[in-house]
Design brief:
Rossmann fold; five-stranded antiparallel sheet; 12 helices; alpha/beta; about 40% helix; 3 domains
């Protein structure tokens, strides 16, 4: 009991300042003996106030402060996640509470400090947000609170919430946003646009009367003869198509943008895209490529597929080796007998890097509909538009423009061999992939 008392007792800066002042007072009283008695009386008064402060903190309140930490059971990577600390003052007098939160080491925050004033019996809520940029386990330590009375000479250490381990998953917060807007037919507000393309897919739905704007190639002459008015066949998008997100985990995907690696952007986009593809009636799967290892999650249209995707994407990490695209083409050729849409998330920083992998991409495109998604270097793009004044800056800008031009050449090279491509910034990756998928659906390419 006594040990617990001393472990929880801390003196404040005010107490040490007063004690230092008293020491100086005693030094002065050595030269002026008449002040010695005054110094003793002031010291006695200070000790009395300290004992009174300790009585208020420890005797008058056996359960002084209740602290609880409320947050989601899992965090969304790259998004702001809310944490709430609830405090309740059980003292019968006002107190000052200083809260020190032990945040996970991944955030590298060592100065979290909140100071609140609380009335007797009052409850307060301290809210803050955290934005993780890595997937994995995050260990929250204890919530420490230091309680002071009005005297403010001592403070009592109170431990609130205990240690908690939170798992950070791919950005399921964005997934929920897309689900909500899709449910309310408001995807256009997020930047997703459905394109109207003249033509139809191969799945027949029903026959209806001709209205202005219908494709005349869909006229049903037999039904027109029976009804005496123009009738057209109505088609709907084909469903149950296999769609795979192929994620390259090689060193090219380790490049960071705004705190997140390209792999994390690809994972977040794959999660949102897979959910939309499932809502459109297609089957979604996942392929990950690292060095010579190819892991496949078979495509499925079941409701449990999203949970399987989330758990599979949660554990993905980049590797320093270069990915083996030859192994990828051979593996997918043997595993996938049905023509599928393959969305390959990768990155090429030079035309040479693309040329090395182009033969294997052509093999994949021969049997499947291949969409290669790679990234613009936004920092280089900004540099190409800056105003330069020195010869050195001109050289650097020319080099940056060369790299930016090479990205466009890569798109042209892929198009030359009938491979679809999407060059996008990391921030717009999810929107552009979803729009591209809807475009491919409307063009009946899948």
């Amino acid at each position: 009991m006594l040990k617990r008392f001393f472990l929880s007792l801390f003196f404040t800066t005010r107490f040490y300042t007063l004690m230092g002042s008293m020491a100086i007072f005693f030094v002065v009283s050595f030269f002026f003996p008449s002040l010695y008695m005054v110094a003793q009386l002031v010291t006695a008064a200070l000790l009395f106030l300290l004992l009174l402060d300790l009585f208020f903190l420890y005797v008058a309140g056996k359960q002084p402060l209740l602290i609880s930490r409320n947050m989601a059971g899992r965090f969304s990577n790259g998004e702001e996640n809310d944490i709430h600390l609830k405090l309740k003052n059980n003292y019968r007098f006002p107190v000052t509470v200083i809260v020190l939160e032990e945040l996970p080491v991944q955030f590298q925050v060592r100065d979290f400090r909140k100071k609140v004033q609380m009335k007797p019996g009052e409850e307060q809520d301290i809210s803050y947000t955290l934005r993780p940029v890595e997937r994995g386990e995050y260990n929250f330590g204890k919530t420490n609170a230091f309680v002071r009375s009005l005297l403010g000479l001592a403070q009592r250490h109170v431990v609130g919430a205990e240690e908690t381990i939170i798992k950070v998953y791919p950005s399921f917060a964005a997934l929920h946003n897309y689900e909500f807007f899709s449910f309310n037919n408001r995807l256009a507000e997020l930047g997703v646009h459905k394109k109207r393309v003249i033509g139809h897919s191969m799945e027949f739905d029903h026959i209806k009367e001709y209205t202005r704007g219908d494709d005349v190639r869909t006229l049903n002459w037999k039904a027109t003869a029976r009804r005496g008015t123009f009738m057209v066949n109505n088609y709907v998008e084909e469903k149950s198509q296999q769609v795979y997100c192929v994620i390259d985990k090689g060193r090219a995907m380790k490049m960071p943008f705004n705190g997140l690696s390209l792999l994390d952007y690809a994972i977040n986009a794959s999660l949102v895209f897979s959910n939309i593809a499932l809502q459109k009636g297609d089957k979604t799967g996942l392929v990950t490529l690292a060095a010579q290892q190819v892991d496949v999650l078979p495509a499925s249209g079941k409701k449990t597929q999203m949970n399987l995707l989330l758990e599979r994407l949660y554990a993905q990490e980049t590797r320093w080796e270069e990915s083996d695209y030859e192994r990828l083409s051979v593996s997918l050729r043997s595993l996938f007998s049905q023509r599928s849409l393959l969305i390959l998330f990768t990155n090429f920083e030079s035309m040479t890097g693309l040329q090395r992998q182009l033969p294997y991409l052509r093999k994949l495109a021969k049997y499947h509909l291949l969409l290669v998604v790679f990234f613009e270097n936004t920092e280089l793009k900004k540099f190409t538009k800056d105003n330069v004044h020195t010869v050195e800056d001109i050289y650097r800008q020319v080099i940056a423009q060369k790299f930016a031009y090479e990205k466009k050449l890569m798109v042209r090279e892929l198009t030359r061999y009938g491979i679809l491509s999407l060059l996008t910034t990391p921030e717009q990756l999810t929107l552009n992939v979803v729009n591209k998928y809807l475009e491919l659906k409307s063009r009946s390419l899948i």
